[in-house]
Automatic annotation (TrEMBL):
<dbReference type="GO" id="GO:0000917">
    <property type="term" value="P:division septum assembly"/>
</dbReference>
<dbReference type="Pfam" id="PF03775">
    <property type="entry name" value="MinC_C"/>
</dbReference>
<keyword id="KW-0132">Cell division</keyword>
<keyword id="KW-0717">Septation</keyword>
<comment type="function">
    <text>Cell division inhibitor that blocks the formation of polar Z ring septums. Rapidly oscillates between the poles of the cell to destabilize FtsZ filaments that have formed before they mature into polar Z rings. Prevents FtsZ polymerization.</text>
</comment>
<dbReference type="GO" id="GO:1901891">
    <property type="term" value="P:regulation of cell septum assembly"/>
</dbReference>
<dbReference type="InterPro" id="IPR005526">
    <property type="entry name" value="Septum_form_inhib_MinC_C"/>
</dbReference>
<dbReference type="GO" id="GO:0000902">
    <property type="term" value="P:cell morphogenesis"/>
</dbReference>
<comment type="similarity">
    <text>Belongs to the MinC family.</text>
</comment>
<dbReference type="InterPro" id="IPR016098">
    <property type="entry name" value="CAP/MinC_C"/>
</dbReference>
<dbReference type="InterPro" id="IPR036145">
    <property type="entry name" value="MinC_C_sf"/>
</dbReference>
<comment type="subunit">
    <text>Interacts with MinD and FtsZ.</text>
</comment>
<feature type="domain" description="Septum formation inhibitor MinC C-terminal">
    <location>
        <begin position="118"/>
        <end position="217"/>
    </location>
</feature>
<protein>
    <recommendedName>
        <fullName>Probable septum site-determining protein MinC</fullName>
    </recommendedName>
</protein>
<dbReference type="InterPro" id="IPR013033">
    <property type="entry name" value="MinC"/>
</dbReference>
<keyword id="KW-0131">Cell cycle</keyword>
Length: 221
């Protein structure tokens, strides 16, 4: 399962947040391939090579670099890392294909909320991690896939995988989907599995929220 990391400015604060998460869940990051997407730093003066070395020093296995001018990696050991989004449309994927965001919206200097838009399905074995705000997925979240968001999660296709919301925003986060079939849903550390839900909500448009220390679910519309 590949992890997609989206560094943000200020990078020092982002690295500190990453360190805190790695300390809380060291096993989660162990031996997992990592894709680093620089789209959120497109207008930032951060040295991408220095940041990649910082991630490498943390034991992360970087397999791909996205969202930056490749010439900025020239002469470094990272210049040979592929940009998986440049694969031809008719090329057969080898192994599991990574679902990568086309564009990561730039945050304002003092943002109230940041967000990440994924405009394609998230396939089995893929993992999206975005700690700093909401995640919106325009396609499906397949069984065996997962999304971890600092805020709320919106899935406009079938929700079959695992959704973890509220990593930063806590209990105020919500999960929205058009077709419920999730393997697991969690908000602020409180989780439920498919066995816990009323089957009348299967394949229905629902919202999930946290109230009184338990997850609640209701139909939309």
């Amino acid at each position: 399962m590949a992890l997609i990391l989206v560094p943000e400015a200020p990078v020092s604060a982002w690295l500190s947040a990453l360190d805190a998460q790695m300390e809380r869940a060291a096993g989660y990051f162990a031996q997992k391939p990592v894709v680093v997407n620089f789209s959120a730093l497109a207008d930032d003066a951060t040295d991408p090579t220095a940041l990649l070395y910082a991630l490498d020093m943390r034991g992360l296995a970087i397999i791909s670099v996205e969202g930056l001018d490749r010439s900025r990696l020239s002469g470094t050991r990272f210049e040979t890392l592929p940009d998986l989004r440049q694969k031809a449309d008719n090329e057969e994927p080898l192994g599991r294909e990574l679902a990568l965001p086309e564009e990561v919206p730039r945050a304002e200097p003092v943002p109230a909320v940041t967000s990440l838009l994924i405009d394609r399905p998230v396939r089995s074995g893929q993992s999206i991690i975005f700690e700093h705000g909401d995640v919106t997925i325009l396609g499906a979240l397949s069984s065996g896939a997962e999304v971890i968001a600092g805020g709320s999660v919106h899935v406009y296709g079938p929700l079959r995988g695992r959704v973890i919301a509220g990593v930063k925003s806590g209990a105020k986060a919500r999960i929205f989907c058009r077709k419920l079939g999730a393997e697991l849903a969690a908000i602020d550390g409180v989780y439920s599995t498919a066995d816990d839900w009323n089957k009348t909500y299967d394949n229905c448009a629902v919202q999930i929220w946290l109230s009184g220390g338990a997850l609640k679910i209701s139909a939309l519309g």
